[in-house]
From TrEMBL:
Function: Plays a role in vesicular protein sorting.
Protein name: Vacuolar protein sorting-associated protein 35
Chief location bin: membrane
Family: Belongs to the VPS35 family.
Superkingdom of the source species: Eukaryota
Gene3D superfamilies referenced in this protein's UniProt entry, alphabetically: Vacuolar protein sorting-associated protein 35, helical subcomplex Vps35-C
Keywords: Membrane, Protein transport, Transport
Species whose genome carries this gene: Hevea brasiliensis
Length: 790
C-alpha cells in the first residue's frame, strides 16, 4: 500500500515538473519577445502546478524549487520597464487579475520585490500589503511555501536601519512587524499540518512536518539579523511576541524546535538580560516537550558566554542568573510531573556545569544544586536506571574535575547525600572516581574530620553494602578496588603527630568493618602509615600530659597490636607475621624492649599455630632470623630466648636442605658487626657444624633413597659462610677448618655416587677463584688466606 503511494507520488511529481517545464518554455519565448501578456499567462499556468495537494512536503519542495528558479527569470524581466513598457505600479495592479489565488500571490510577491526596489512606494507599505494578501492561502503546505517565498524575496529589502529601504523613525519596528507577522502565520500553518490526512499516518506526518521546520525557523534568523533590533526592542517586542506564539501553539514539535531556535539565533547577551521572560515560558510548554534539552542548551550557551571573557561576569551577578535558573528548574520539574528522573538530573547537571564555570568561587551555589538534586530524589528508591546513574556520576564528578581537589568536595554537605542515592555498583564506581582524582592530583587529606567524610563517601569499597557480599564480586575488579583503597591510605598525612594519630584511628575504625577479604589489602598500608609516624616520634617515650589523645610510639603500638591480630584471625597468618616483625623493628628503633619482645612473641605464636605449609615456614623462619639479627634493643636474657627459639625452629623444618640453610643463617644471630654487637664465635661455629651435619645427613638420605649422592651445593654454601666469618676475624673459624671443608667438597664432587650439579660446580669454582684472588691481593687478608691451599 505504502509502496503504491510512493510510486503514485513519483508519477504526480513527474507530471507536475513536466507541466512546469512546458509552460516555462512558452514563458521564455514570451520573455524573449518582450510580450508581457503572454509571459503573465504562461507564468500563471506554470504556478498553477503548485496548487496540487497530492504530494508530500518532500516532493512538493522539489516542485517548488523548479518554479522558484523560473520566477527568478521573470523578476529580472519585470525589473526592465523598457522591455515590457508598463510601470511597476501598473504591473502590481495587473498581476492581481490572475485567475487563481496561488499563482496570483506568487506573481504579486515577485512584482512586490521589484516594486520595493524601485522605491516608488515605501517598503513597509508593500510588505504589509503582501503579508496580509498571503492570508488568502490557508492550505498548510501551499501556504508555508508561499510565505517562505515571500520571506526569501523580501529579506534584503526590509526597511531596516542603514538599509537602502530605510523609512521613518520607526523603520526597524516596521521590519520587525513584517517578519513577526509572517513568522506567526507560518507557524500556525505548520502546526495545522498535523491535522491533515488520516490519524493512522500520524508518525509519517510528524516526520514530514519536522522536515519543514527550517522554513519557519528562518524567520527567527532574519529577525536576529535586523540591525535595528537592539536589546530594548528584543526585550519589549520581539521575545514576548515570539514566546506568546510558541506557548499558545500548544504543539510539542513546534515548541521544542522554536525554543531551540530562540536560544541558537539570538545573542547570548540578550538571553542573559531577558532571562526572566525566557525562563517563564518553560513551565508553560506542553508536558511532552523535551524541556531538559532546550533548557540545558540555554545554560550551556550562557556558560560559554561567561567563559568567553571575564568582563561579562559582573552581568551574571547583576541579573542573578544562578538564582533565576535554579528557580526555573524547580518550576519546570513541578510543572512536568511526568518528567523522567533522568531528565531532572540532566537539568541539575547543566545547572552545576553553569555554576562551576560562572561562579567557581561560590561553593554554596554548588552545594545548593546538589541539595536540590537530593530533594528531587528523596522519597524515591535507589536509582537503578543506567542513564540516570550515569548522569549522577557526571554530576558528582564535575566538582572534582573543576577544582582538582577532593578536599573541596568534602566540604559540600550534600555531596554524600547524592552518593547515597546511587545503587551499590555505581556507588563503587563513583568511589573509584574520587580515589583516582586524589591520586591524579596528589591530593593530601590532612584532617581526621575530612578523612571521616571521605571514608563515608567511599564506604562502598570499604565494606559490604546492604545486599552485597564480597563473595559475589569479580575477583580482578575487587583486587583493583582494594589496591586503590590501599594507595589512598598512603595519601592521608598530617605533619602534626596528634592529628595524624587521629587520622590513623579514623581509618582503622572504617577498615576494620571490611571483612576477611578486604583486611589483607587495607591493614598493611595502615600499619606502615602508623610506623611512619612512629619513626617521626622515635625520640619520645611515655605519655604526654594534658593531651586528649597523646601521640607516642607506645600509644601507636598499642593500637597496632589488635589490628594485626584481626588480620591473623582472617586468616592471613603469613602477612600478619611480616607486619609483627615490621613493628618489632620499629619498636627496636624506639628503644622499647618490652613492646619489641611482645611483637616477636606474637610472630612465633603465629609460626607455631597458624603456618603449616612447609614453603611458608621456610620463608617465615628466614624473615624471623633476618629481623632478629638487626635487633639491638634486647637484653641478654630476651635475646637468648628468641635466638634459641629461632635455631630450634630452623632445625625442625621438614626438608633437610631447608633445615641446613636455616641453621647456617642462624649463625648471624651470634655475630653482629655493630660497634656494640654480639660476637660469640663458639656459637657461630656450633651453628655451622650443625649445618654441616645436616648437609651430611641430606647426602646420606639421598644415597639411601635414590642410590646416588645428593648435590654438594649445601657444602659450598656452608664454605661461603666459613669464609665470611673467617674474614670477620672470628677466632673459632680457622684456615685448617676451611681447608678440610674444601677437601671434603672436592672428594664429594669426584665421587661416582654424586649426582652432577652444574650450578654447584660453578659456585664452587667461583668460591675457589675468590680465595686465590685474596691470596694474590696480599696484605693482611692475603696473609690470612695464605695457609689455605685451593
Amino acid at each position: 500500500m505504502i509502496l503504491g503511494g510512493i510510486e503514485d507520488e513519483d508519477k504526480w511529481l513527474a507530471e507536475g515538473i513536466a507541466a512546469i517545464q512546458h509552460n516555462a518554455f512558452y514563458m521564455h519565448r514570451a520573455l524573449d519577445a518582450n510580450n508581457l501578456r503572454e509571459a503573465l499567462k504562461y507564468s500563471a499556468q506554470m504556478l498553477s502546478e503548485l496548487r496540487t495537494s497530492k504530494l508530500s512536503p518532500h516532493k512538493y519542495y522539489e516542485l517548488y524549487m523548479r518554479a522558484f528558479d523560473e520566477l527568478r527569470r521573470l523578476e529580472i524581466f519585470f525589473k526592465d520597464e523598457s522591455r515590457h513598457g508598463v510601470s511597476v505600479v501598473d504591473l502590481y495592479e495587473l498581476v492581481q487579475h490572475a485567475g487563481n489565488i496561488l499563482p496570483r500571490l506568487y506573481l504579486l510577491c515577485t512584482v512586490g520585490s521589484v516594486y520595493i526596489k524601485s522605491k516608488e512606494a515605501p517598503a513597509k507599505d508593500v510588505l504589509k500589503d503582501l503579508v496580509e494578501m498571503c492570508r488568502g492561502v490557508q492550505h498548510p503546505i501551499r501556504g508555508l511555501f508561499l510565505r517562505s517565498y515571500l520571506a526569501q524575496v523580501s529579506r534584503d529589502k526590509l526597511p531596516d536601519i542603514g538599509s537602502d529601504y530605510e523609512g521613518d523613525a520607526d523603520t526597524a519596528m516596521d521590519a520587525v512587524e513584517f517578519v513577526l507577522q509572517n513568522f506567526i502565520e507560518m507557524n500556525k500553518l505548520w502546526v495545522r499540518m498535523q491535522y491533515q490526512g488520516p490519524g493512522r499516518v500520524r508518525e509519517k506526518q510528524e516526520k514530514e512536518r519536522s522536515e519543514l521546520r527550517d522554513l519557519v525557523g528562518k524567520n527567527l534568523h532574519v529577525l536576529s539579523q535586523i540591525e535595528g533590533v537592539d536589546l530594548e526592542m528584543y526585550r519589549d517586542t520581539v521575545l514576548p511576541r515570539v514566546l506568546e506564539q510558541v506557548v499558545n501553539c500548544k504543539d510539542e514539535l513546534a515548541q521544542y524546535y522554536l525554543m531551540d531556535c530562540i536560544i541558537q539565533v539570538f545573542p547570548d547577551e540578550y538571553h542573559l538580560q531577558t532571562l526572566d521572560t525566557l525562563l517563564d515560558a518553560y513551565p508553560q510548554l506542553q508536558p511532552t516537550v523535551d524541556v531538559k534539552t532546550v533548557l540545558s542548551q540555554l545554560m550551556e550557551r550562557l556558560s560559554n558566554y561567561a567563559a568567553s571573557s571575564e568582563d561579562v561576569l559582573p552581568e551574571f551577578l547583576q541579573v542573578e542568573a544562578f538564582a533565576k535558573l535554579s528557580s526555573a528548574i524547580g518550576k519546570v520539574t513541578e510543572a512536568h510531573v511526568d518528567m523522567p528522573i533522568v531528565g531532572a538530573i540532566t537539568l541539575y547537571l547543566s545547572l552545576l556545569t553553569f555554576t562551576l564555570r560562572v561562579h567557581p568561587d561560590r561553593l554554596d551555589y554548588v552545594d545548593q544544586v546538589l541539595g536540590a538534586c537530593v530533594k528531587k530524589l528523596s522519597g524515591k528508591p535507589k536509582l537503578e536506571d543506567s542513564r540516570a546513574t550515569k548522569q549522577i556520576v557526571a554530576l558528582l564528578s564535575a566538582p572534582l574535575e573543576k577544582y582538582n581537589d577532593v578536599v573541596t568536595a568534602l566540604t559540600l554537605s550534600n555531596y554524600p547525600r547524592v552518593m547515597d542515592r546511587l545503587d551499590n555498583e555505581t556507588n563503587k564506581v563513583m568511589a573509584m572516581v574520587i580515589i583516582q582524582s586524589i591520586m591524579k592530583n596528589y591530593t593530601c587529606i590532612s584532617s581526621a574530620d575530612k578523612v571521616e567524610v571521605l571514608f563515608e563517601l567511599i564506604k562502598g569499597l570499604i565494606k559490604d553494602l546492604d545486599g552485597t557480599t564480597a563473595d559475589e564480586l569479580d575477583e580482578e575488579d575487587f583486587k583493583e578496588e582494594q589496591n586503590s583503597v590501599a594507595r589512598l591510605i598512603h595519601m592521608l598525612y598530617n605533619g602534626e603527630p596528634e592529628e595524624m594519630l587521629k587520622i590513623i584511628c579514623t581509618v582503622k575504625k572504617h577498615i576494620m568493618t571490611g571483612g576477611p577479604k578486604r583486611l589483607p589489602f587495607t591493614v598493611p598500608p595502615l600499619i606502615f602509615s602508623a610506623l611512619r609516624l612512629v619513626r617521626k616520634l622515635q625520640c619520645q617515650d611515655g605519655d604526654v600530659v594534658g593531651e586528649e589523645l597523646p601521640a607516642t610510639p607506645k600509644k601507636i603500638f598499642q593500637l597496632l597490636n589488635p589490628t594485626i591480630e584481626a588480620l591473623s584471625s582472617v586468616p592471613s597468618s603469613e602477612l600478619a607475621l611480616r607486619l609483627y616483625l615490621q613493628c618489632a623493628e620499629a619498636a627496636n628503633d624506639c628503644d622499647l624492649e618490652p613492646i619489641a619482645y611482645e611483637f616477636f612473641t606474637q610472630a612465633f605464636v603465629l609460626y607455631e599455630e597458624e603456618i603449616a605449609d612447609s614453603k611458608a615456614q621456610v620463608t617465615a623462619i628466614h624473615l624471623i632470623i633476618g629481623t632478629l639479627q638487626r635487633m639491638n634493643v634486647f637484653g641478654v636474657e630476651n635475646r637468648d630466648t628468641l635466638t634459641h627459639k629461632a635455631t630450634g625452629y630452623s632445625a625442625k623444618l621438614l626438608k633437610k636442605p631447608d633445615q641446613c640453610r636455616a641453621v647456617y643463617a642462624c649463625s648471624h644471630l651470634f655475630w653482629v658487626d655493630d660497634l656494640d654487637g654480639i660476637k660469640d664465635g663458639e656459637r657461630v661455629l656450633l651453628c655451622l657444624k650443625r649445618a654441616l651435619r645436616i648437609a651430611n645427613a641430606a647426602q646420606q638420605m639421598a644415597t639411601v633413597t635414590r642410590g646416588s649422592g645428593g648435590p654438594v651445593i649445601l657444602f659450598v654454601e656452608i664454605l661461603n659462610k666459613y669464609l665470611y666469618f673467617f674474614e670477620k676475624a672470628n677466632p673459632q673459624i680457622t684456615s685448617s677448618a676451611i681447608q678440610s671443608l674444601i677437601e671434603l667438597i672436592n672428594t664429594e664432587m669426584q665421587s661416582d655416587s654424586t649426582t652432577p650439579d652444574p650450578a654447584a660446580s660453578a659456585f664452587f669454582a667461583s668460591t675457589i677463584r675468590y680465595i686465590q684472588f685474596q691470596k694474590q691481593k696480599g696484605g693482611v687478608m692475603g696473609e690470612k688466606y695464605d695457609p689455605i691451599k685451593a
